[in-house]
Amino acid sequence: MATLKQVAAHADVSVQTVSNALNAPHRLRADTLERVNRSIELLNYRPNRNARSLRTSAVELIGYCVPSWPNQTHLVMDQFLHALCAAAERTGRHILLFTAPAGVDGMPTYEDLHARRMVDGFVLSQTETHDPRHGWLKDQGIPFVSFGRVWKETTQPGPWVDVDGAGGSAMAVRHLYETGRRRIAFLGWPKSSGLAEDRVAGWRDACKVLGLPTAGLVVRCREDSIDDGARATAQLLDGGRDIDGIVALSDILALGALRELGRRGLTPGHAVGVTGFDDSPLAEVVSPGLTSLRQPMDQIAEELITILTGPAGEPAERLLQPELVIRGSSAPG
Amino acid sequence: MATLKQVAAHADVSVQTVSNALNAPHRLRADTLERVNRSIELLNYRPNRNARSLRTSAVELIGYCVPSWPNQTHLVMDQFLHALCAAAERTGRHILLFTAPAGVDGMPTYEDLHARRMVDGFVLSQTETHDPRHGWLKDQGIPFVSFGRVWKETTQPGPWVDVDGAGGSAMAVRHLYETGRRRIAFLGWPKSSGLAEDRVAGWRDACKVLGLPTAGLVVRCREDSIDDGARATAQLLDGGRDIDGIVALSDILALGALRELGRRGLTPGHAVGVTGFDDSPLAEVVSPGLTSLRQPMDQIAEELITILTGPAGEPAERLLQPELVIRGSSAPG
User: Fold this and answer.
1) What are the HTH lacI-type domain coordinates in residue numbering (chains A, B) (predicted)?
2) Tens digits of per-residue pLDDT, B55-80?
3) Are A70 and B79 a contacting pair at CB < 8 A?
4) Nearest CA-CA distance, residue A101 and chain B, Å
């Protein structure tokens, strides 16, 4: 059977490029990717997914740190945990939950759990801009995979799976465009959030491609609250730009938009189309229902577990597309 | 050192009564409880909290089944899991998460995890009316403790910890009364829910004690949605009963009440005081903030772990009081 090296020689690329073709295809130019894939096929190369990077131990457990509250709201955490457990169980493993201080202060807890062989590796989530955990774990040689990117770093230590926020925003813009909207605003968060910047970039790019205006159509809310979403919507409606669509960075901000529209006697989904992010339980309990971008939890969990229990060493980066769940808030205007 | 039996003989009660005095004092008449407590003190009896009912195994893990979605919304599940992990860790244990089918179909999964010594015992939650898990686990001799009661059964198999829903509703009624409200309605769920009946009973009792009307002031919503809460509120406001307070069985129904009041130009917290249940993240993101009954998560988790890791055999039943978190939705009218 062919090796990675033979594939690289055949395609006249580096081993790293072949690895990227397998694990982070979006990093490659289309023609390079095609050439590598042809070599993979011709040489019948198959990455050995059975080789286990995690040490075989008596207990097959994967550690997951429960995010602390009340600092953060996790409206879809139960969905994520259910999917993660189910995916781990399909490989004969279980999830061990633990608590740890945020940032580097929590690292000794991770190290201790791994040293005592309580867990084979970790799934990280609630990734933050400049998150220090990834580099630390990589330096210690402790297996992990991240749900979410470390923003604003040129290279991210270790493998990750994430949802394409920019792609999601663009999807929302195209949907609103298709239902007749031509002046689509964006409700976001402060610039310090990498996640927020990713999503606003997707909105901006999609508007430009469709020839829609963007100037003066972004409002950055200080907090992720219904109140701030409503205030930002009022600002947009009073701004004289005659907006007919709103892409909100979160379901909570979108709920604020729906409230402000309702308060002014404007039927959401008719006068102005509104979309949210995450398809949280909130999206279904309001009326009209909120159109929102659902994270593909089962696929996310499956990829995380596959990467963590697969062969080590190959950089794995998976950017998954969210799914637009259409409800009344974006009905044709 | 005195035994349970000696205490029983001294107080002239059964061993079961002494056990109740220790673990379920609310079951005893005040004079019996006092007599037993005096005997306990005189004989210097101390329940042996160090005797471990859970088998000592290599891995000190407690199993918790992640509730399935999307059938249920768990807006405070992250809070519960964080508290449960922290409490387990204070005893040197961790939480093992797993998935299982609902009801008796899931029981083989519990049995298997216990038989393979993956876990020492289980914490159950999302307890349902006539929940079959408790009796099954008890019959198998598998250690467990339940967060939540099995409603509509005369006796519940195994120990439990729960929050006093009736007491919480009564607390909300008294608070609204103290802020000047005299016609306080209740937004609930269908009668089939034991939890809902518990909470409506607390509302009714408190209203009666305070001499407030109850007739025609209960609306049972079919679903736990903002929409149903708003519709029920409209029905109450149009019913000619001039209501000035609403105790809602959930934060989601309460949000519906706030929306309907807002739609009619009535300022929530002024014209009509509104309270919710659970103090979910929703309560803080609306404006005015929603007054809500918070479940004492840390205390709940502490009791669950103490019971599960404590001596077996003694029935333990702990009914904890929720805490009323007051916000703008119930400001003085």
Assistant:
1) 2-56
2) 333 448 999 998 875 545 667 888 89
3) yes
4) 11
